[in-house]
Amino acid sequence: MKEMQKLFPSIDGNEYQREEIISHIKNIFTEIDELKDPSKLTLGEMPEYTEDYYNRVIQQAMVPEMGLPMEDTVQKLLNLVKGHRYVNRNYVANAAPLPNIASILGNLIMVLVNGNNLWDVEGPAAATAEVEVTSMLSKLIGYDATVSTGYTTWGGQGAVFQSLRLAIARHAPQSNRNGVPNNVYCFCSELSHYSLYKSVEATGIGIDNMIRVKVKEDHSMDLEDLQEKMEQVIAEGGIPLYVLATMGTTDTFGIDDLAGMKRITEELEQKNGLNPIYIHADSAMGGMYTFFNEYDFENNPLQFDEKVCDVLTNYQQKFRNIRLADSMVFDFHKLGQTPYITSLFLIKDKEYLKYVDLDASETPYVGNRGYGSYHTSYTLECSRMGSAMAIYASLLAFGVEGYQELLANYIRVNIAFREALTKEVQNVAMTNDISPITTFRFYPEAQKWNDERDGHLTCEEMTEINQFNDEFAEVLGLERDTIFFGNTRKQRLIEPVNSDQRIPVYAHKFFAVSPYTTIEEIDRYVAFLKEHMAFYLKTREQILV
Ligand SMILES: *Cc1c(COP(=O)(O)O)cnc(C)c1O
C-alpha cells in the first residue's frame, strides 16, 4: 500500500508530500498561463473538431493497465485545456464566469477536506458556510433570516425544480403519497428559461398545464395577460399553483413586476378561496443586482455616472420586491463570477420544507444520531458538494461594495457599447433596454426596428431580416477566437402586419460579463462588428449580382 499512498495527500502534514502536490499545482498554473493570450479567446489552438472527433475519442479511450506517472497524468489533462475558451475581454457572448480567486480557493479548500454537505458530521465546513451565506443573503434581499432557509443546489434550473416541488407539497401535503393533483397549473412568461418546462415535465404536472404569458415591450411579463389566463384556468375548474417571476430574462434581461404579480395572485386567492399561489423568483440571471437594494443613490458613494445610476435605481425598485417571493435563487456562477456550480436556493419560510422532508426512519445511516444537528434530508440530492464555500469566499473577498463595482461595470460598458455601435454602424438597432446584455439587430438597409417592433412589417420582411442576422452570426462565429459575441433566435415574438402568427426575432448579443471587459475595449468590439458587417454586405452584394 505504500505505493498507493503516494497517490494521496499526507496524513501527518509532512513537508515532502505537501511540496509534491504544490509542484503539480504550480506546473498546472504555469502551463495554463503560458496558453493565455489577451488578444484571443482561447487557451492555445483549438483541436480540429472534425465530424469524427468524438468517434475517434471513443475508439481510443481505454483505462490504462498501469497507472501513469503524475506528470503524464497532468499533461494529459492539460492537453484537454488546449483551445478552451477563456472568459477574458474577448468573451462577450453569455453569462459565463471567470471564477474569482477567492472562489477558486474556497473550492480548493472544500475539495481538500472533501466535506459532504448532506450532514454536518460529514461536512462541518460546508454546513456552517451554507448556513452563513443563507443568512447573509437573506438579510441582503429582505427575507427574515430567522425564518428563511436555503441550500446550494444544481443550478438555477435546480432551484426552479425544487421550488415547484415545494409548491406542490404545500398545496397538497399528501401528494408524496397520492401523487401530484392533475388540475394544477403553472404560469411563466413566454421568455422565461426552459427550466420550468423541464420541471413540469419531470414532476408529472405536464407541459399542457404550463401556461405561457405574453411579455411587454420591456420583456417583462404582461400582468393583464397573466390575470386573464389565471381567471380562465379557474373558470374551467383548474387551480393556479405556481408563478415563475423571471428577474432578468436570459437573453434580454427583462424583469417581471413581482409586486404586481403578488397583488394579482392574492386577489384571485381571496376571490376564489384558493390556497396561496406559490411565486418563485427566477433570479438566476439578475439576482446579483439585489446587492444594490440598500445603495444610496442620493449620495452615490461609489460615484457611478448618472446613466449607470438611472439603470441601477430602476433595478433597485424591481429587485427589492424579490422579498415578496416564496423563494429565489442566486446563481453565483453567472454574474457573481464563481466556478460551476454555485447556486444558492433561498426559501422565505423554512416551514415549507416540512412537507418534503424525509422521516428519520427513511435515512438510517445519517442524520439520526445525537451528534450532528444539520441534516439536509429535504434536498433532492443525497451527497452534496459544499459549494457554499466558494460563495462564502467570494462574499468575504468582494463585500457588498466589491460586487456593486463589478455589477455596475457591466452596465457602464453596455451603455458605452450602445452609444459607440449606434454611432459607427448605420444599419443596426438596439432591441432591449440597457442592462448587462445588449441585444442588437442588423438590417440589410436602413434600420427599421421601431416599425418592426410596432408590427408594421410583413412576415416576409421580418423573415428576410432574420435570415440576414442569422447568416451574419455565422460570419461572426467563424472568428469567435478573436471576439465571441452571442446570439439568439428568439429574443421575443412580434406579430407582423399581414399575419396573426407571431414571429421570433433573431438578434446578436453583447454580454459584458468579464471584469476585463472595460470601457477601454469598446472601440475594439465595435470596430470588429463594423469591419465584418462591411465585409458581409460586400460579399452579399456580389452574390446578389
Ligand atoms: C441560466 C438561467 C437558468 C438556469 O440556471 P443554471 O444555473 O444554468 O441551471 C434559469 N433561469 C434563468 C433566467 C437563467 O438565466
From TrEMBL:
Record flagged with keyword Magnesium: no
Cofactor names: pyridoxal 5'-phosphate
Domain of life of the native organism: Bacteria
InterPro entries recorded: PyrdxlP-dep_de-COase, PyrdxlP-dep_Trfase, PyrdxlP-dep_Trfase_major, PyrdxlP-dep_Trfase_small
Keywords: Decarboxylase, Lyase, Pyridoxal phosphate
Keyword Lyase applies: yes
Family annotation (PANTHER family): CYSTEINE SULFINIC ACID DECARBOXYLASE, GLUTAMATE DECARBOXYLASE-RELATED
Family under the similarity heading: Belongs to the group II decarboxylase family.
Record-given protein name: Pyridoxal phosphate-dependent decarboxylase family protein
Organism the protein comes from: Ornithinibacillus salinisoli
